[in-house]
Amino acid sequence: MGSQQGSTLSTNVAGLVDGSSACREVSYDDSLPVYVKELIAGGAAGAFAKTAVAPFERTKILLQTRTEGFQSRGVYQSLKKLLKQEGILGFYKGNGASVLRIVPYAALHFMTYEEYRVWIINNYPSMGSGPVIDLLAGSLAGGTAVLCTYPLDLARTKLAYQVVDTGGSLRSGIRSICAQPAYSGVKDVLTSVYKEGGIRALYRGIGPTLAGILPYAGLKFYIYEELKRHVPEEHQKSIVMRLSCGAMAGLFGQTFTYPLDVVRRQMQVSYIYSC
């Protein structure tokens, strides 16, 4: 229950910019190339939103992975415990990796969505240009962005998973086979994991991630476009209306694929090597 609450709270904001169509329509200086506009929109909005919801994102990870001391707590109690044990900065542990990831992730999502959409329309004209195109293009764009940025997502999870107790020692979740190593930062996670298991270790959990992101990204674009079609024409350019449609689309997509997100997090933090 607590982890689902954490997901809902963070999705309401992050779902708006994590490759969403709402930000895709923000206008910028016409002198800039289209891909530069998309990089600015996706990167800046994504970094801002991830930082805004970082406390809820970290709480969600701790609840999903059943980290010691957080298994039976809800969102509010978990936030209080984190504040007491790690201070304000504890809310943002792993957020650096999240921001490093969301900038290229959102940019890739924006750009490849348009490219996939045009490619599908040109190569399969019989499909028309309706919501099915948005569903397919969104799924392909989401899968592409995930594949290119997954190691940073792994690093974000492993850093957020480490909780420093009042005695200064690290605690890890009950699902690890043996004690997790202590990571000092993004670079340390990536180099340590690579030394332990090579490229495959950096992509541990990619299966359920792709299984979740393909329908999630596709549904998000599809629902957003469908909701927008029902908005009166005089309100379609309203940023509030676009954000509202984006929030509802992201919330539905996240809820639908949430079980796979739990599987992904638990696979990311499991330590499969011999102690």
UniProtKB/TrEMBL annotation:
UniProt keyword Transmembrane, yes or no: yes
Biological processes per GO annotation: transmembrane transport
SUPFAM superfamilies in UniProt: Mitochondrial carrier (SSF103506)
Primary location class: membrane
Entry-linked InterPro entries: MCP, MCP_dom_sf, MCP_transmembrane
Membrane topology: Multi-pass membrane protein
Pfam families: Mito_carr (PF00153)
Solcar repeat residues: 33-119, 129-230
Localization per Swiss-Prot or TrEMBL: Membrane
Example of a GO cellular component annotation carried by this entry: membrane
Keyword set, alphabetical order: Membrane, Repeat, Transmembrane, Transport
Presence of keyword Chaperone: no
Family the entry assigns: Belongs to the mitochondrial carrier (TC 2.A.29) family.
PANTHER family with a match to the protein in the record: SOLUTE CARRIER FAMILY 25 (PTHR24089)
Name this protein carries in UniProt: Uncharacterized protein
Lineage, highest ranks first: Eukaryota, Viridiplantae, Streptophyta, Embryophyta, Tracheophyta
